[in-house]
TrEMBL record:
Residues 1-20 form the signal peptide. The keyword Signal applies. It comes from the Eukaryota. SUPFAM superfamilies: MIR domain (SSF82109). Residues 33-87, 95-150, 153-207 form the MIR domain. This is MIR domain-containing protein. InterPro entries: MIR_dom_sf, MIR_motif. The keyword Repeat applies.
């Protein structure tokens, strides 16, 4: 795990302003954890199975054929980091707080593609496929996810229970214990479902949390 954090730190020092950033491992659930702000780099943990949202440069063998997204069992994995970005055209900048109801994008740190969904069927369960697509200058509304904080919280913090609701398809980011057997053996399916279920709750776990930018 130390090696993964070292590599992440080097990458971020070259790409982000880290003055005051909080390097945070997973912790017990709390309402007083650091805020997740735009530009923060996080791992999202599936509450029910504890797997991390993950991607790698391996395409789906069916559906869209785009870069696959899975749930990964190990904490120490560099392919499970996501950069939190705002919706294009919005007056949001690095370090701004993210409130419930905000539309966000998640950029896979290693491949620079966006967490994406559409109407293709997911490989195992036949639900909505979730993939990674696009790049730094290629993003569309299929990359838009509405942040929904469970409970009374108004701004996104570490360990808060959240749902991500896909704008185009109305599917919730979802996972379950249905696992791949071959290329991603041992990893579990991530997909979208239109019903609100216990299996579509996530928490921000390990990551680098940029400090909240003070208003001037």
């Amino acid at each position: 795990m130390a090696l993964a954090f070292f590599g992440l730190s080097i990458f971020l020092f070259l790409n982000l302003d880290l003055d005051g950033a909080s390097f945070s491992p997973a912790s017990a659930a709390s309402d007083s954890g650091p805020e997740i702000t735009y530009g923060s780099v996080v791992k999202l943990m599936h509450e029910k199975t504890k797997y991390r949202l993950h991607s790698h440069d391996v395409p789906y063998g069916s559906g869209s054929g785009q870069q696959s997204v899975t749930g990964f069992p190990n904490v120490d994995d560099a392919n499970s980091y996501w950069i939190v970005r705002p919706q294009p055209g919005k007056n949001a900048k690095q370090g701004d707080s993210i409130g419930t109801g905000a539309i966000i994008r998640l950029q896979h740190m290693k491949t620079r593609k966006w967490l994406h969904s559409h109407l293709h069927a997911s490989p195992i369960s036949g639900n909505l496929e979730v993939s990674c697509f696009g790049g730094e200058n290629e993003s569309d509304t299929g990359d838009y996810w509405r942040l929904m904080i469970e409970g009374s919280g108004k701004t996104w913090k570490q360990d808060q229970r959240i749902r991500l609701h896909h704008v185009d398809t109305s599917g919730y980011l979802h996972s379950h214990d249905k696992k791949y057997q071959r290329i991603a053996g041992g990893q579990q399916e991530v997909c979208g479902v239109r019903e609100k279920r216990a299996d579509n709750v996530w928490l921000a776990a390990e990551g680098i949390y940029l400090p909240v930018t003070e208003s001037k």
